Amino acid sequence: MSDLLKSLWQNPETEKRMAALYGAAEVENQKKRYEALAERYVKCFGPFAGPVTVFSAPGRTEIGGNHTDHNNGCVLAAAVNLDTVAVVTPRDDGVICVDSEGFPPMEISTDSLEVNEAEFGTTTALIRGTAGALRERGMKVGGFNAVITSSVARGSGLSSSAAFEVLIAAILDGLYNGFVIDAQTRAEIAQEVENRWFGKPCGLMDQMASSVGGLVAIDFEKPRASVTALSYDFAAKGYALCVVNTGGDHGDLTDDYAAIRTEMEAVAKALGGRVLRDIPREVFEAKLPEIRTKVGDRALLRAMHYYDENENVAAMVKALNGDDLNQFLSIVTRSGDSSWERLQNVYARPTEEQMALGIALSRRYLGNKGTCRVHGGGFAGTIQAYVPLDLLDGYMACMEKVFGKGSCISLMIRPEGAVMMPV
Fold first, then answer.
1. Residues forming a β-bridge with 419
2. Which of the chain's ends, N or C, has fewer CB atoms near its CB within 10 Å?
3. CA angle, corner 125, sides to 134 and 171, nearest 5?
4. What distance in Å separates the CA atoms of residue 172 and residue 139, rounded to the nearest whole number?
5. How many domains would you assign to the chain?
6. 156: domain CATH number?
7. What is the pLDDT of residues 35-53, one digit of tens each?
């Protein structure tokens, strides 16, 4: 191991923190990963000429609350042990230079941070937007050099974009404001960036889970979300929490994602509200026949899912707090059925039904010994499964035989969100 990050490894707290973030068995692998990233920094930018800092932001897994956050609903989510990591040094010329693995090098001047529609959907927009959103809030921003790597693969359903947004916000906060922005505000900044600068009308769940860390129940009813930490060790109860990347490209599905929010809000508007959280369920059900011609049947089905899913989240939290895993798993199944039947986000095109196939194969393999559901935004990408540990190897082999090597990942819930580690 080189001595590029020698002072980091000499810190007695590093080993403990790395074990918490990645699991004790992964510490040595992560040290090598960090060192390789530092070596890449030198290749990209030359020898370190200033203070070096390592930043990390995790991916997230959605436990419950599929497509409820954007209508001020409730979700249950967790940060995971896959993350996006950056080795960073500040610059004094106001230029942000980023070499992110898998992307061309990017250079953004902090002199120009306005929304640029020509950049919609690009990583450049996320970087520019984060600096712009921080400056609008009166925070200091400045230039930096960064090399970035991520184990949150694009299209994995673990929200690589939110991890990246949260990471950039943490870098600018850490370098120029003393790392003082609280986790919820950091998440709100990341969501605004994705909405305004990136052009995707996402909710706040992904960014909140990545920024806050741990297993959290989030209620978005009020402008300032209510976040409640939970603690549950699925492995200690004999289950692995898995995601399976069934394939498919998210790149051309923005309109499909946006339509869910648009249709839910159309139902709310027809009933005199802004979002569905403004409308009591009994009012929606009483008025359903008369608004049907205004909003269409799919919008009504998606609204039904919203109300059902909010109740599912509350029931999941109650089951976990009561250590009733069997009840929790039955609610996961119910949530997945609602997403498929009412929300209708298991596939976008009848010719591309990878997620439907993954769910069908999972249910056939697990029988009544586990469960699975659509994961995250849906339409393409990942499913989530709770697999008994004695079936894990066989389940992973079954999934990887169909969807490819490495498609099935067993996750650990990470206790921290975005972190800053000075070297």
1. 56
2. N
3. 45
4. 9
5. 1
6. 3.30.230.10
7. 999 999 999 999 988 899 9
**First vs last C-alpha separation in the chain:** 16
Q: Are 405 and 413 in contact (CB under 8 A)?
A: no
pLDDT tens-digit profile of 112-168? Answer: 999 999 999 899 999 999 999 999 999 999 999 999 999 876 655 556 788 999 999
- Distance from C-alpha of 115 to C-alpha of 122, rounded to nearest angstrom: 12
Spatial distance between the Cα atoms of 52 and 85, rounded to a whole number of angstroms: 13
Which residue has tokens 């059902």? Answer: 308
Percent of the chain with pLDDT over 90: 78
Round to whole Å and give the CA distance between 408 and 382. 9
**pLDDT reported for residue 13:** 85
pLDDT of residue 153: 66
Domain-located, residue 103: yes
For 189, the domain range is 6-230+414-422
Parallel, antiparallel, or unpaired for β 95-100 and 143-150? parallel
Copy the structure tokens of residue 366: 């697990």
222 Cβ neighbours under 8 A, 6+ residues apart: none
Q: Give yes or no for residue 341 having a pLDDT over 70.
A: yes
Residue-wise over 34-51: b if at least 16 C-beta within 10 A, else e?
A: bbebbebbeeebeeeeee
Strands (E) across 92-191 are located at: 95-100, 106-109, 143-150
- Distances, alpha carbon 323 to alpha carbons 216, 232, 235, 310, 318, in Å: 16, 8, 13, 20, 9
* 355 within a domain of the structure (yes/no): no
Tell me whether residue 315 is in a domain: no
How much is the CA Rg of the chain, to the nearest whole Å? Answer: 21
Residue type, 57: A
The reported pTM is 0.85
Inter-residue contact 314 to 323 (CB < 8 Å): no
Q: Quick one: pLDDT band at residue 385, thresholds 50, 70, 90?
A: very high
Q: Which residue has the tokens 């066989």?
A: 394
State the pLDDT at residue 265. Answer: 97
- Determine the average pLDDT of the residues in 220-226: 88
